[in-house]
């Protein structure tokens, strides 16, 4: 299964993408993460329900210098490839 995340708050310029990449590695989630022009961060994660729940928990917490205010989650089609990547 796969989920699409949009993370709101102070999430750009604080290492959020690297944090998400590390969280994906810890939880075994594939997919990607990138900054959006509107100041949010967008991610797609693919894995089991348990993996995605754990990944979402990390995304809601965010990195030390960030401040996550909200995370929108929707089901989506799985991304191509099994690895997690940072998109620029």
Please tell me about this protein's structure.
The chain is of the alpha+beta class and 88 residues long. It has one domain: 2-Layer Sandwich (Alpha-Beta Plaits). Helices cover 28% and strands 38% of the residues. It contains 2 helices and 5 strands. The protein has helices at residues 16-27, 49-61, and strands at 2-10, 30-35, 41-46, 67-75, 84-86. A 5-stranded mixed sheet has the order 4-1-3-2-5, covered by helices on one side. α1 (16-27) runs antiparallel to α2 (49-61). The protein starts with a strand and ends with a strand.
Summarize the structure.
With 88 residues, the protein is of the alpha+beta class. 28% of the residues lie in helices and 38% in strands. The protein has one domain (2-80): Alpha-Beta Plaits (2-Layer Sandwich), CATH 3.30.70.
Unreliable runs = none
Number-wise, the strands total 5
Largest sheet report: 5 strands, mixed
Question: How many helix segments?
Answer: 2
What number of domains? 1
- Please state the CA-atom Rg, rounded to the nearest Å: 11 Å
How much strand content do the residues show? 35-45%
The CATH C-level class name: Alpha Beta
The N- and C-terminal alpha carbons lie at a distance of 24 Å
- The backbone outline, from C-alpha atoms, is globular
Architecture, according to CATH?
A: 2-Layer Sandwich
Order of helices and strands: EHEEHEE
Quote the CATH topology. Answer: Alpha-Beta Plaits
